[in-house]
Prior knowledge:
Helices cover 4% and strands 30% of the residues. With 330 residues, the protein is mostly beta strands. It has three domains: 1-114, no CATH class; 121-160, no CATH class; 186-329, Jelly Rolls (Sandwich), CATH 2.60.120. Strands 6, 8, 9, 11, 13, 14, 15 and 16 form an eight-stranded antiparallel sheet that branches. Strands 10-7-12 form a three-stranded antiparallel sheet, with no helix packed on it. A two-stranded antiparallel sheet has the order 1-2. The two termini are 32 Å apart.
Amino acid sequence: MSGHTLGSGHTHDVPSEGGYRPLVDTCGNRNVFGNYQCSSQFPLANSATIMGYCHQCEGDVENIKYTLGGHWTGGDRADLSSWVDADLQGTVSTDPRRVPKKIYDYVSTAGQCMVPAGDVPEFVCESDDDCDDGVDCTVDACGPDGRCANEPAEGSCCGNRVCEAGEFDCPDCGPFHLRPEPCTDSCWIPAGVMFDVDAVESVVITGLEFRMYDASGNFAAAVEIYEAPGPYAGKAEDPSSWSLAGSSAYSGVSWDRAVLALDRPVFVPAGTKRAFYVTALGGDARVVAGKGTGDPTAESAHLVVRGTARYTEGLFGEGTTEPDGQGCST
């Protein structure tokens, strides 16, 4: 694949593997059961790029549009805002323009061996049709200087990656899945973990995914999720400051993932912080948590998951941000 030769990892790779944060898509990643993490939007033609594995999902190669993910529109090539996403369907791919931008960054550092043999003519548009970027939600115009301008169209437009009033059935409004990179060297396994999220845009959180562990190899426990406005600091041991958002019983093999759909979805207005508390009750089952060494631990255009967590023993019990003795190699 020429994209790899030119400096890009897969769209499901993390930065340490030459990839992206947030991931462009998750199609090539597998869950603990060995299944590809395919979007619920599949099958969806022309929704993913050639740098991913979304052909492994329902829909096969029809999911793939033959593009790296976008193109440069003029201006400073080092500025991501000078690049636009390819016209992909749905929201399977997140900011795929980062792929060709990454390739440009790599190629532009290659030195004299990459200098063209002759002059490269600059693209000059002659009409608005020359500037069509294939995106329905932009107004495409050829300027008097011969440069294209692709500006967002006024009013609501499903497909502009902005969730607007009345777009309840539009992919612009989700659902979106934000997953931190899993701990690989070692994981903390406390009874419960508190963490904060920051809303970049107003969001509704409908569920949380987590892993469970029991030293016996199989777990069986009730799990409760609490939420509170603001950060967890200052209220960590005060149950009256929290509201129960969801609970369920789980059983399975250690390291299995579980998803708890909240009984009461949590609205987090843009620019505000919200605290969450996931805790296992009864038996020896525990929650698998990262070590809290990175902040943020995950982020998207909508939400930031903060990496500084509090690990607890017992419901709203004493906790620490460095749970010595609770590490477990994976």
